[in-house]
Amino acid sequence: MAPPVFSSPDVATHDTTDVLIQSSGTRCIKESYQDAYEIFGNHFEADINYLLQNSVASNTFKTYLGGLESFCNFRVNFGLNQKWPAPLQDVIFFITHLFKTGLSHSTINCYLSGISFFHKLNNLLDNTQCFVVRKMVEDVRRAKSKLNSRLPLTRELLEKIVSVVPSLCSSQFETKLFTAAFSLAFHGLFRVGELTVGSKGIADHTVLFNNVKVCDEFLPVYLATSKTDQLGTGKVLTISSQYNVKICPVIALSSYYMVRPSVEGPLFCHYDTKPLTRYQFSAVLKKSLAVLGYKGSNYKSRSFRIGMDTTLSIEGYADDYVKILVRWKSDSSYLKYIRVPV
């Protein structure tokens, strides 16, 4: 099992860094802090953990925990001592193990970010930032780039997908729902979590019905929060109409609005007012691709976002402009979405 996130998991293996933030059931790193923690720790513990857990997106936090637990299990399985801070040798072995098991560069990087997150919270030496580790991660990216099978959706493929959606849906309402969702996902470069809810109905960043207005030539969409806007600064996205009426987001959403129930909540919902889920979005996409004879494993919900990013780049739009639309601040983050369609 992974150690508590906000405390050093092994008192005996770390005697130079003062770790004061404790999870329930853990003890202080140094005996000199025991009395202070007993006085203040229980009183502030819940609030401290709440603030720290909400310092990153909920899904990101879950991924960090998964990475930390995977690292701990790896060390147990291979007979390595549970030392903290994690020795550089352990981190290097872990990267090699993940690479050999076939994990993607992004997953490996997320796992390392989780380990780094834990170390930084506890003011521990963070060996995931060492030069040799970063070079290994870069080598993994280069090696995996040749094997990455996730392909971008093109405008042509999007048109084919919406053409077979009616044959997969049980009603005209469902057809309008998925046609609008797919068109908006592509042209708005949305993350799937911004248009759907999770399996447990969690809608952290889901676009709401009241935050979208349908105009004649464009769609102003207010995104209250997002993965890159945890503080809720908010952003208005302007999605333009398209010449191809079959995939035009303005036409598709207008048609959906004519039959959508008059209820508040997430933008996309079924006739019974239940929100569209991530699973349903992905399932209909997969079925559509199967009908068209495409390999579903090559296309995921993120292929819409990858597809529009790639399309804009191929059409000659400036990198800075595309980066704004994709809503990434760093060049490396948005450039990884650009793929050569086949």
UniProtKB/TrEMBL annotation:
It comes from the Eukaryota. One of its GO terms (molecular function) is DNA binding. Keywords: DNA recombination, DNA-binding. GO terms for biological process: DNA integration; DNA recombination. Signal peptide: none annotated. Pfam families: Phage_int_SAM_1. SUPFAM superfamilies: DNA breaking-rejoining enzymes (SSF56349), lambda integrase-like, N-terminal domain (SSF47823). Residues 50-120 form the Integrase SAM-like N-terminal domain. PANTHER family: P CELL-TYPE AGGLUTINATION PROTEIN MAP4-LIKE-RELATED, PHAGE_INTEGRASE DOMAIN-CONTAINING PROTEIN. This is Integrase SAM-like N-terminal domain-containing protein.
